[in-house]
Specification:
Elements lengths: L1 H7 L22 E8 L3 E4 L5 E3 L1 E6 L3 E3 L10 E3 L6 E3 L12 E2 L2 E4 L2 E4 L3 E5 L13 E4 L4 E3 L11 E5 L12 E3 L5 E3 L8 E10 L4 E4 L3 E6 L7 E7 L4 E7 L4 E4 L1 E5 L3 E6 L9 E4 L4 E4 L8 E9 L2 E17 L7 E3 L5 E4 L2 E4 L3 E6 L2 E2 L9 E4 L2 E4 L8 E9 L2 E11 L2 E5 L5 E6 L4 E3 L3 E4 L3 E6 L11 E3 L5 E3 L8 E9 L2 E12 L3 E4 L4 E4 L4 E4 L1 E3 L7 E6 L2 E2 L6 E3 L3 E4 L8 E8 L4 E11 L6 E6 L5 E7 L10 E8 L7 E8 L4 E5 L5 E9 L14 E2 L10 E6 L5 E7 L3 H4 L5 E8 L7 E5 L4 E5 L6 E10 L2 E2 L6 E4 L10 E9 L2 E7 L3 H4 L3 E13 L6 E11 L4 E4 L6 E11 ...
Parallel strand pairs: 2-11, 12-19, 21-28, 29-37, 39-46, 48-56
Antiparallel strand pairs: 1-4, 3-7, 5-9, 6-7, 8-11, 9-10, 13-16, 14-17, 15-16, 17-18, 17-19, 20-23, 22-26, 24-27, 25-26, 27-28, 28-31, 30-35, 32-33, 32-36, 34-35, 36-37, 38-41, 40-44, 42-45, 43-44, 45-46, 47-50, 49-54, 51-52, 51-55, 53-54, 55-56, 57-58, 58-61, 59-60, 59-62, 62-63, 64-65, 65-68, ...
Keywords: Cell adhesion, Cell membrane, Developmental protein, Differentiation, Disulfide bond, Glycoprotein, Immunoglobulin domain, Membrane, Neurogenesis, Phosphoprotein, Repeat, Signal, Transmembrane, Transmembrane helix
InterPro entries: FN3_dom (IPR003961), FN3_sf (IPR036116), Ig-like_dom (IPR007110), Ig-like_dom_sf (IPR036179), Ig-like_fold (IPR013783), Ig_I-set (IPR013098), Ig_sub (IPR003599), Ig_sub2 (IPR003598)
GO biological process, one term: brain development
C-alpha cells in the first residue's frame, strides 16, 4: 500500500536541454515521462536548514515515483504532495546522516526516466586549530611570507587579511596575497612592523567568518640591506605544470622577492593571450583566463624584473575536459506507426568519453530485443516503428572528469494536426525590423506547415519570407505592405487544420531633436529638448535618466512632454542626461552632458620667496576651477605707503602657472593678491600675502610726453607726464626743466619745478624752435640723463598771401586752382592748410540775373593746388586764396575772376498739350530754367500707347529750332494715346527731357475717356460700381456726391488695381452722382468718365403686427378654450351640490381669523351689488367689517357694474357676471351666488386637480 502511495507521487526533474528546439507533445496526449527539474549533481546543503532534493516530471498518464529509499521507515523524510521532491526534516537529527548519493525515477506505462546521481553533502566551516604564533623579527629589506593555512571547508573559504579594526591591510606591488591565502612581502620596510596581521576565512554557505591568531611582525633597521635581483617565491624552480578543466577559470601566479620590488609580466610562449578572456590580478602577479578551452593549453612565462636583473618561470598548462555535448542532448522523438527516426548522443571530452545506452533505466543490452531498433555507438536508429514501442532512452557519457546523463523518449502516436499557437493572435513589429509569426503545431506524422496571406493566392515560401522548420514564418525586414491577415495551414496524412495570424507594422520611434551638450553656470537654468516621433497607435512613455539612473527627486527638475528643465543649477546637477522614449515595441534614446561651471575659487597659500632689491617670486595654490579651465591669473598689489586700500594690476600669467616673478619698485610697501579667471568670471581675490617693503632710491626714469608749444605769440609752455608714486622711487620728487633755442652753442636754461606737469617760459620770440629736457629728482638723487625733446614758441597770424593764383577748368562744373606756397617766415607758425573763398557772380546768359553765392573750401596741409567741385556752367566766378596756421588765417590773395564753360541744359520748364483733334494736337513749352549755355534747339520724341495696355509703339523724332516754343503735330491716329518727350540742347549736348501724354479725339469738343461700361448695382453691403479701363494712368479713383439743391463736394475713394468697388454708407432713399477719375502726371489733366446717377433704395422698417402672428393667435385660442373648460367644470360642480371632504374640513374650522375658500362655488370670494360688501372667502377681514379693494387695476371687481358679461374684440373679459344667489350660513359670513370669475375659476381648477 505504501509502495502504491509512493508510486502515485509525481517526480519532477529539471532537464537542462534546449527546449526551444525540442518537440513538445501536448500534455493531453499519451507520452512517456520527461524530467523537468532536479537538484544539481553536487548538492551542498546548509546544515541549519531542511534538506530538499528536487525531482519533478511530466507525462501522460502522470508519472509515478520509483525509489529504493523507504520513506516509511524514516519519520523525518517525506515526499512533497503531487511531486517527487524529497524533503528531510533535520530539526531532530543531524544533516550528515543524509549525506549520500540519491537518484529518482519517473515512470508510467509508456516508459521510465531517471535523474542524475545527486551527491548530497553538508557544508562545513571548521574552526581554526589552536596554535602558538610567535612574533616574527626580520631585517629591513628581506622577503617575508605570513602563512594563513585556513581549515578545509566545504566549499573552500574566501581568504582576506585585516587588522584589529577590521580594516583590510593595504596591498601593493610589494605586498600581496597569494591564491592559497598566504601574505607575501617582496621586501619588508620599517612601516610593516605591527602586531595585528590577522587572516580571516569566510565560509559562504554558512556566512561565518573564522579568524586566525594575530601575527606580530617586527622589522629591524640595524644596517641597510643590499639591493638584489628578483627570485621567485612561488612557484619554485624554473618550470612547473598546471591542469585545468575546460570551462573553468585558469589562474596562475608568480610572486617574486627582490630589492627593489620586482615588476611581473606575462607572455604565452606558443601564442598570444586571449585578450577578451584575460585579466591580471594582484598587481600583475596573477594571470586569470576565464572559460578555459583547449586552445589555452601551452607554455606560459612569467618574468620578474628590477634594475639589477630579471628571472623567468615557465608554467606548462594542460586542459582536460569533462564530457560536454557537441550538438546538444538527445531530442525526444515522436513517430507515427511505420516511420523511422534517430536518437543521437554526441558528446566530446578529454580524454574521449565512453557512451552507454539504457532503456527505461535498464541497460539496453539487458532490455527486450526490438528488431526496429539498432544501436550504433552514440546513435540509435529506429525503422518502421509500431504502436507500443514507446520508451524512454537514457544516454550516459562519462570519462575520468565527469559524466552526462540525458533522457529522451520515443513516442509512437497517430494524431491529426493541431495548431498550438493562439487563434487570431496579433503580432506588432516595428518597420524595418524582423517579424516572426509563430505557428507552433503538433501531429503525428509531423504536420507540414504552409503560410498564406490575405486572399491565399499563393504560398509564402520565397523572398522576403523565410519558413523555419518549427513552422515560424520570418519576414527579415518588415514593411508597411506586410501588414495584414496571415493563415498558417498544418496538414499530415491524417487531416488538416489552420490558424489565422494578424501582423501590424508600426512606424519606429525616433528622436527628431536630441538634447544638446550644455555648459551652464551655477544658479542658471538648463533646458534639454527631446522631440520624438512615434507610431500614433502606440502609447509612448518618456523617461529621463541621469548617469543611467533615475532622476533625483528634486522639484527643480521639471519634466515636460518633450523637455527637461533644471532650474537653479548646482554643481551636483552635472552629469549625463538621457531621454528614453519607450513604446510597447521599441524605444529610442539620446544623451547629452551637462557641465556646470562657476567662477573659480580664489587661490590660496600665497608665499613670497627669493626676495631681492628689485624682484621677488610669488607662488600660490590654485582653487577649484569648477569645470572651466583657468585661463590666467591676475596679480594685484596694494601700496600701503602711498595708496592704502587701492589695489592695482601688476601683471598676468598663464592659467597653467602657479609662480610669478615680480619686479619691484623702490620706496613701496607691497601687499599682493591673486585672482583666477576662467570662462565664467574672475574669482574672488585671494587673501593678501604678507607685507613687503622696498628701500628708497633715485628715480629710474624721467617723465615722458615732453612737449613744447606756445599759448601766446611770446611764450613757450613746456609740459610732461609726471611720474606716479610707484615711479618716484623715494620722497621729495621734483623736476629739473631745461630749454634752449635750437641754434649752435646756445646755453641751457634750467629751473626746478615742484611735483607739477608744466612750466611756462615768457618773453620768447614768435615761433622759434627749442630743445627741451625734463629730469626727475628725489631726495636720493636724480634720474638718468633725459632725452631731448623739441618744440616751438607761440604762433602768430600769417602776414602774407599766396602768389600766382591760377584757375584751369576741367569741365563745366569742375575747376582746379593753383597757387605758390607762402614762405615759412611769413606764416609764423605751423602750416595748417589753405582756404579758397569763391563765389558765383552771375550767369553768362542774358536772361539770368546776377547771383552772389559765397563759398569756402578748406584744404588741410601744405598744398599748392586743389579742385573746386559743384560749379555752375556758363557762369562768372571770383576767388581768392589764404593760408592759415594754428593762430588763424592770413590776408587773402587778389581776387581772380574766371568763366565756366557751357554745359547741358536742364529740362524745359513745362510741356502742355492743347487743341487735341481727330488727327492732330499742339504742344507748347517754355525754355529750361537752367539753360547752362546757349540753347541751340529742341528734340521732340513721341510714340503711341496701345489701348488697355502699357505697351509703346514706334518712336518718332523731330528736331526743333531754339526760337520755337510750340509745335502742331499732324496726321496722328484718331482716338490714340501718345507719349511725348522734349529736351533742350546746347553745344555740350542734350539735357533732361520732360514728358507728357495726350489722346487724339473723335469729337474735337469732347476728349475720349479711358473708361467704359460704367454700371452700378445695389446689395446688402452697399452699392457696387463696375467699369472697364484701358488708360495708362496708375491712379484711379471713384468720386461721388449727393444730388441735392446745394453744392456738394465730391467724395473720393482710391481704387487702384481693380475694376469694381463697393460704396458703403450711402443713405437710403437718396440719389448720388458717381464718376471715375484717372490721374497721371501733375501737369496732365485728369481723365473723367461719364457721370452715373445711382439711386439708393429706402430700407423698409420691420414692423410686425403681433395680431397677425401665428404664435399669438394660437396662444389666445388656447387661453379661451381653457377658460371655457373651467367654466363648464364649475357649473357642473355647482349643479351637483354636496360637499367635498375639503369643504367639511373647512366648515369644521372655528378660527375666526382664517376662513378658507369654498370649493363648491369654485370661487375665492363673492361679489354683491349690495352696499354691504362682504369679504372674500379665505381673506382676512378687517376689524371694522369692511373689505379694502386691492391696488390692482386688473381686478374683475372693477368691472361689476351692470351689463351682461361679454368679451371685446381682443379677447379681454369685460362686463359683470350676474345670477341668483343662495345664502348659506358659515362661520366666516355669507356666500354669494354670483357667477364665478375666470380667475376664481382657474384657482378652483387648481384645487380640484
Amino acid at each position: 500500500m505504501m509502495e502504491r502511495r509512493r508510486m502515485d507521487a509525481a517526480l519532477l526533474v529539471l532537464l537542462l536541454v534546449r527546449l526551444a528546439t525540442a518537440l513538445e507533445v501536448p500534455l493531453d496526449l499519451p507520452q512517456p515521462p520527461t524530467i523537468t527539474h532536479q537538484s544539481p549533481k553536487d548538492y551542498i546543503i546548509d546544515p541549519r536548514e531542511n534538506i530538499i532534493i528536487h525531482c519533478e516530471a511530466k507525462g501522460k498518464p502522470p508519472p509515478r515515483n520509483g525509489t529504493h529509499f523507504d520513506i516509511d521507515e524514516d519519520p523525518n523524510v517525506t515526499l512533497k504532495p503531487h511531486s517527487g521532491t524529497l524533503m528531510v526534516d533535520i530539526s531532530r537529527v543531524k544533516a550528515q546522516q543524509y549525506e549520500c548519493v540519491y537518484q529518482c525515477t519517473a515512470r508510467n506505462k509508456h516508459g521510465t526516466a531517471v535523474s542524475n546521481n545527486i551527491v548530497v553533502q553538508q557544508s562545513r566551516s571548521p574552526l581554526w586549530s589552536k596554535e602558538n604564533v610567535k612574533a616574527l623579527v626580520v631585517q629591513e629589506g628581506v622577503s617575508l611570507v605570513l602563512p594563513c593555512r585556513p581549515p578545509a571547508g566545504l566549499p573552500p573559504p574566501i581568504i582576506f587579511w585585516m587588522d584589529n579594526n577590521f580594516q583590510r591591510l593595504p596591498q601593493s606591488r610589494r605586498v600581496s596575497q597569494s591564491l592559497n591565502g598566504d601574505l607575501y612581502f617582496s621586501n619588508v620596510l620599517r612601516e610593516d612592523s605591527r602586531n595585528d596581521y590577522i587572516c580571516y576565512a569566510r565560509f559562504p554557505y554558512t556566512q561565518t567568518i573564522q579568524q586566525k591568531q594575530p601575527i606580530t611582525v617586527k622589522v629591524l633597521n640595524q644596517e641597510p640591506a643590499d639591493e638584489r635581483k628578483p627570485i621567485f617565491l612561488i612557484p619554485s624552480g624554473p618550470t612547473s605544470s598546471k591542469m585545468v578543466l575546460r570551462g573553468q577559470v585558469l589562474e596562475m601566479e608568480c610572486i617574486a622577492e627582490g630589492l627593489h620590488t620586482p615588476d611581473i609580466s606575462w607572455t604565452k610562449v606558443s601564442g598570444d593571450l586571449p585578450a577578451k578572456r584575460t585579466s591580471f590580478l594582484q598587481f600583475q602577479k596573477t594571470l586569470r583566463i576565464a572559460d578555459a578551452s583547449e586552445s589555452d593549453a601551452g607554455d606560459y612565462r612569467c618574468t620578474a624584473r628590477n634594475r639589477l636583473g630579471s628571472v623567468h618561470h615557465t608554467i606548462h598548462v594542460t586542459v582536460k575536459a569533462a564530457p560536454y555535448w557537441i550538438s546538444g542532448a538527445p531530442k525526444n522523438l515522436v513517430l507515427a506507426p511505420g516511420e523511422s527516426g534517430v536518437l543521437t548522443c554526441r558528446a566530446s571530452g578529454t580524454p574521449k568519453p565512453s557512451v552507454s545506452w539504457a532503456m527505461n533505466g535498464i541497460p539496453i543490452e539487458n532490455s527486450p530485443k526490438d528488431l526496429s531498433r539498432k544501436v550504433e555507438d552514440d546513435t540509435i536508429i529506429f525503422t518502421d516503428v509500431q504502436t507500443g514501442a514507446s520508451a524512454v532512452y537514457q544516454c550516459n557519457v562519462s570519462n575520468d572528469y565527469g559524466y552526462l546523463l540525458s533522457n529522451a523518449f520515443v513516442n509512437v502516436l497517430s494524431e491529426t494536426p493541431r495548431v498550438l499557437t493562439a487563434a487570431n493572435k496579433v503580432y506588432q513589429v516595428i518597420k524595418n525590423h524582423q517579424a516572426l509569426l509563430d505557428c507552433a503545431s503538433f501531429g503525428s506524422p509531423i504536420p507540414k506547415i504552409t503560410w498564406f496571406k490575405d486572399s491565399r493566392s499563393s504560398t509564402l515560401d520565397g523572398d522576403p519570407y523565410i519558413l523555419h522548420d518549427n513552422g515560424t514564418l520570418e519576414i527579415h525586414v518588415a514593411q508597411d505592405h506586410n501588414s495584414g491577415k496571415y493563415t498558417c495551414v498544418a496538414r499530415n496524412s491524417l487531416g488538416i487544420t489552420e490558424n489565422h495570424i494578424y501582423l501590424e507594422v508600426k512606424d519606429p520611434t525616433r528622436i527628431l531633436k536630441q538634447p544638446e551638450y550644455k555648459v551652464v553656470q551655477v544658479g542658471r537654468s538648463a533646458v534639454f529638448e527631446c522631440k520624438v516621433k512615434h507610431d500614433p497607435s502606440l502609447i509612448p512613455t518618456m523617461t529621463w535618466l541621469k548617469d543611467d539612473g533615475e532622476l533625483p527627486d528634486d522639484e527643480r527638475l521639471i519634466v515636460d512632454s518633450d523637455s527637461l528643465t533644471i532650474t537653479d543649477v548646482t554643481e551636483n546637477d552635472a552629469g549625463v542626461y538621457t531621454c528614453v522614449m519607450n513604446t510597447t515595441l521599441d524605444h529610442d534614446s539620446a544623451s547629452a552632458e551637462l557641465t556646470v561651471v562657476e567662477r573659480p575659487d580664489p587661490p590660496t597659500d600665497l608665499e613670497l620667496t627669493d626676495q631681492k632689491k628689485r624682484s621677488v617670486q610669488l607662488t600660490w595654490i590654485p582653487g577649484d576651477e569648477h569645470n572651466s579651465p583657468i585661463k590666467k591669473f591676475l596679480i594685484q598689489y596694494q601700496d600701503s605707503l602711498h595708496h592704502r586700500g587701492h589695489w592695482h594690476n601688476l601683471t598676468e600669467v598663464s592659467g597653467t602657472k602657479t609662480t610669478a616673478h615680480l619686479k619691484l619698485s623702490p620706496h613701496v610697501h607691497y601687499t599682493f593678491r591673486v585672482l583666477a579667471l576662467n570662462a565664467v568670471d574672475y574669482s574672488r581675490p585671494s587673501f593678501p600675502s604678507r607685507g613687503l617693503k622696498t628701500e628708497p632710491a633715485a628715480p629710474d626714469e624721467n617723465p615722458t610726453g615732453v612737449k613744447g608749444f606756445g599759448t601766446e605769440h611770446d611764450n613757450l609752455v613746456i609740459s610732461w607726464k609726471p611720474l606716479s608714486s610707484l615711479q618716484s622711487n623715494g620722497p621729495g620728487l621734483h623736476y629739473r626743466v631745461m630749454w634752449r633755442q635750437k641754434v649752435v652753442d646756445s646755453d641751457w636754461t634750467t629751473v626746478t619745478v615742484a611735483n607739477n606737469s608744466k612750466f611756462v617760459v615768457s618773453g620768447t620770440p614768435t615761433f622759434v624752435p627749442y630743445e627741451l629736457k625734463v629730469q626727475a629728482v628725489n631726495d636720493h638723487g636724480a634720474g638718468p640723463d633725459p632725452a631731448i625733446a623739441h618744440g616751438h614758441s607761440g604762433e602768430d597770424l600769417p602776414v602774407a598771401a599766396p602768389d600766382n593764383v591760377q584757375v584751369m577748368w576741367i569741365n563745366s562744373t569742375l575747376a582746379e586752382v593753383h597757387w605758390d606756397p607762402v614762405p615759412s617766415k611769413f606764416i609764423r607758425g605751423h602750416v595748417e592748410g589753405y582756404k579758397v573763398y569763391y563765389w558765383r557772380k552771375h550767369s553768362l546768359h542774358k536772361h539770368n540775373p546776377d547771383l552772389v553765392e559765397n563759398q569756402v573750401l578748406i584744404f588741410s596741409g601744405n598744398h599748392t593746388h586743389r579742385k573746386l567741385p559743384g560749379l555752375h556752367p556758363f557762369s562768372v566766378y571770383s576767388l581768392n586764396v589764404r593760408v592759415y596756421n594754428g593762430k588763424g588765417e592770413g590776408p587773402p590773395s587778389s581776387d581772380l575772376q574766371f568763366n565756366t564753360p557751357e554745359g547741358v541744359p536742364g529740362a524745359p520748364t513745362h510741356l502742355l498739350v492743347t487743341n487735341p483733334s481727330l488727327d492732330s494736337l499742339t504742344l507748347e513749352w517754355s525754355p529750361p530754367h537752367e539753360r547752362n549755355g546757349r540753347i541751340t534747339g529742341y528734340t521732340l520724341k513721341y510714340q503711341p500707347v496701345v489701348n488697355n495696355s502699357n505697351e509703346l509703339g514706334p518712336v518718332e523724332e523731330l528736331a526743333l529750332p531754339a526760337n520755337e516754343t510750340s509745335v502742331t503735330l499732324l496726321n496722328l491716329k484718331y482716338s490714340t494715346r501718345y507719349k511725348f518727350y522734349l529736351n533742350a540742347k546746347t553745344v555740350r549736348g542734350a539735357g533732361v527731357a520732360v514728358s507728357q501724354e495726350a489722346v487724339t479725339v473723335i469729337d474735337e469738343a469732347q476728349p475720349v475717356s479711358p473708361f467704359g461700361n460704367v454700371s452700378s448695382s445695389s446689395g446688402e453691403d452697399g452699392t457696387l460700381i463696375s467699369w472697364e479701363y484701358w488708360g495708362p494712368e496708375q491712379n484711379v479713383y471713384v468720386e461721388y456726391k449727393e444730388n441735392s439743391d446745394g453744392e456738394e463736394e465730391w467724395q473720393t475713394k482710391r481704387v487702384n488695381g481693380t475694376q469694381n468697388f463697393v460704396l458703403k454708407g450711402l443713405k437710403g432713399g437718396l440719389s448720388y452722382s458717381v464718376r471715375l477719375v484717372a490721374k497721371g502726371h501733375h501737369d496732365q489733366l485728369p481723365h473723367l468718365s461719364e457721370e452715373l446717377v445711382v439711386s439708393v433704395p429706402a430700407v423698409a422698417s420691420r414692423q410686425v403686427d403681433i395680431a397677425t402672428q401665428g404664435w399669438f393667435i394660437g396662444l389666445m385660442c388656447a387661453i379661451a378654450l381653457l377658460i371655457l373648460i373651467l367654466l363648464i367644470i364649475c357649473f357642473i360642480q355647482r349643479n351637483k351640490g354636496g360637499k367635498y371632504p375639503v369643504k367639511e374640513k373647512e366648515d369644521a374650522h372655528t378660527d375666526p381669523e382664517f376662513q378658507p375658500m369654498k370649493d363648491e362655488d369654485c370661487t375665492f370670494g363673492e361679489y354683491s351689488d349690495n352696499e354691504d360688501h362682504k369679504p372674500l372667502k379665505g381673506s382676512r377681514t378687517p376689524s371694522n367689517g369692511t373689505v379694502k379693494r386691492g391696488n390692482s387695476d386688473d381686478s374683475l371687481v372693477d368691472y361689476g357694474e351692470g351689463g351682461d358679461g361679454q368679451f371685446n374684440e381682443d379677447g379681454s373679459f369685460i362686463g359683470q357676471y350676474s345670477g341668483k344667489s343662495a345664502s348659506r350660513e358659515t362661520a366666516g359670513g355669507h356666500e354669494s351666488s354670483e357667477a364665478p370669475s375666470p380667475i376664481n375659476a382657474m384657482n378652483s381648477l387648481n384645487s380640484f386637480v
